[in-house]
Design goal:
The protein is α+β, with helices and mostly antiparallel strands. 23% of the residues lie in helices and 46% in strands. The protein is built from 1 helix and 7 strands. It has one helix at 2-27; strands at 31-39, 50-55, 58-64, 70-76, 79-87, 90-99, 108-110. The strands form 2 sheets. Strands 3-2-5-6 form a 4-stranded antiparallel beta sheet, with no helix packed on it. It has a 3-stranded mixed beta sheet with strand order 4-1-7, with no helix packed on it. The protein is elongated and about 75 Å long.
Length: 111
Amino acid sequence: MKSRSIFQSALMMALLALVFSLAVRAQSNGDFLKGVVRTSSGGGVYASVWVIVRQGGYEKGRSLTGDDGKYYISNLYDGVYDITVYQGTRELHKERVELRSDTRRHDISIR
């Protein structure tokens, strides 16, 4: 009887640990992608344009660039993403990138 109670307690502790680790993972922001949206000449930047990241047709994040052309999108993991830059409703640029843990910066050059 006592060994059964110990087993049930140990099982409950293991289940609680599993639930806790899953909850912590769900709250994680994951990795990120950041960069600058520049003119093709490299001298200027695009301020107030939307950078939208999709994967498999689903939007995974978006960012409005600042006056310095910088964007930051969190909650992205390793994989292949489509990046589209919009100024209002006009598409300015589209490209596909592969994110890896060592490539979290991606500057975009628009012609």
